[in-house]
TrEMBL record:
This is Secernin 3. GO terms for molecular function: cysteine-type exopeptidase activity; dipeptidase activity. Belongs to the peptidase C69 family. Secernin subfamily. It holds the Pfam family Peptidase_C69. It comes from Monopterus albus (Swamp eel).
Length: 418
């Protein structure tokens, strides 16, 4: 099996409607993995405090920003998420000439969460991720399994005014600024000759390995990629299909457009099989800093059979209990060495309810069709409510404290009736 997973998208004016940035990502992971949606408030720390990530401990910073994350339940980091400053980040697995079979270090998913917790702009997130990458490195198994599955990472990062594409290979990296239009990435390097920032030794290292002659125009993807593999070809197909759908809607890209793209199965962007889409995210970020962003998450597999539910950053948000998986603390098999000797039950409340409804959809065609129609209607109604907030701002923040949780409870209530 060659996992070839994940697609991330960003659209900026003038490709979008209403002076907004639209960010979207499907997280394609092992089909039995549970993805949770969790919230962590902003927090201050004392000097010298340490932070335990998935595999290693690093130095904590004095202040972290509030974040909402969609993450595999077994690890510390996240596949995708946003922070209170409307920075959004998603990562992709990439493979190239440089071996990814290193020691345990920071996972790319750890770097996603660290970038969100520590950066209030997209460019600062590039600084955070690359600084940590150079200090601690990237490595470790990316699945909850004894089968060692490793990769390097690409990141798509956006804020209210721009986006950054960040490609990494070991500790080396290149970054490209995207100031307008649209961009999508799959499991392949996306930066070619437009490089706005880079590791100072990145070109010299490539030359020392014989990957670049030192005189021809430098193309990061050409220099650092494999020449060809089935895995890269599969990613390329999804990349081009995603790009075509963005092109088709250029000038009119909305949250609904992005959700439709993430639900598309013909392109394999909505992936099925041993690796499948286990969680999805769409964020709507007005360029006007006075207006809030709205972040939609499914917290369940297969966006075609899931509901995108809204989250808005306000003060005093409560824990998202219905989409938070059980915690096993120091007894977690991930923490014990040797790791991954067993898999505990990580299903959260919404996941369990959704699993039952998925089975009904699969086995009862007419009944399943009505359930999906009901899902879409509930989603549409909630998005209409969010449109008022996106246009006019938040008048009563306390009404949004339980926005996501209330939407989840409404979804579960509908499932119970089904």
């Amino acid at each position: 099996m060659h996992p070839s997973s994940c697609d991330t998208f960003v659209a900026l004016p003038p490709s979008t409607e209403g002076q907004r940035i639209i960010f979207g990502k499907n997280s394609d992971r092992p089909c039995d993995e549970v993805q949770e949606v969790v919230y962590f408030p902003a927090r201050n720390y004392d000097a010298g405090e340490k932070l335990e990530c998935t595999y290693i401990e690093i130095e904590q910073v004095a202040h972290t920003y509030a974040v909402v994350l969609s993450k595999p339940a077994w690890l510390w980091g996240a596949e995708m998420g946003a922070n209170e400053h409307q920075v959004c980040i998603g990562n992709e697995a990439v493979w190239g000439r440089e071996s990814a079979d290193g020691d345990e270090a920071l996972l790319g998913m750890d770097l996603v969460r660290l970038g969100l917790e520590r950066a209030d702009t997209a460019e600062k997130a590039v600084n955070v991720i690359t600084g940590l990458l150079e200090k601690y490195g990237q490595g470790g198994s990316c699945t909850e399994d004894e089968c060692y599955f490793t990769y390097h990472n690409s990141f798509l990062i956006s804020d209210r005014k721009e986006a950054w594409l960040l490609d990494t290979s070991g500790k080396y990296w290149a970054a490209e600024r995207v100031e307008s239009g649209y961009r999508n990435i799959s499991n392949q390097y996306g930066i070619t000759t437009k490089i706005d920032r880079e590791h100072p030794e990145m070109r010299g290292y490539a030359q020392s390995k014989g990957w670049w002659d030192g005189t021809s125009q430098f193309n990061f993807a050409t220099v650092y990629s494999f020449t060809t593999t089935a895995r890269i070809e599969a990613a390329g197909s999804r990349y081009y299909e995603g790009k075509k759908m963005l092109e088709k809607n250029n000038g009119h890209i909305t949250a609904e457009t992005m959700m439709d793209i993430l639900r598309d199965k013909d392109s394999s962007i909505n992936m099925e099989g041993m690796f499948m889409t286990t969680g999805s995210m769409v964020s709507v970020i007005p360029t006007n800093p006075a207006l809030p962003g709205v972040h939609y998450f499914t917290a369940t597999p297969d966006p075609e059979r899931s509901v995108f539910k809204p989250f808005v950053f306000v003060k005093h948000i409560n824990q998202l209990k219905e989409t938070t998986s059980p915690s096993y603390g120091p007894d977690d098999p991930v923490k014990k060495k040797p790791r991954f000797q067993s898999k505990p039950n990580r299903k959260h409340e919404l996941f369990v309810k959704h699993e039952v409804v998925e089975a009904i959809i699969d086995t009862h065609k007419d009944r399943g069709k009505k359930i999906i129609e009901s899902m879409r209607q509930a989603e549409k109604e909630k998005m209409s409510e969010m449109e008022e907030i996106l246009l006019h701002g938040v008048e009563e923040p306390d009404f949004l404290v339980n926005l996501f949780s209330k939407s989840v409870k409404a979804e579960m209530a509908a499932y119970s009736k089904s």
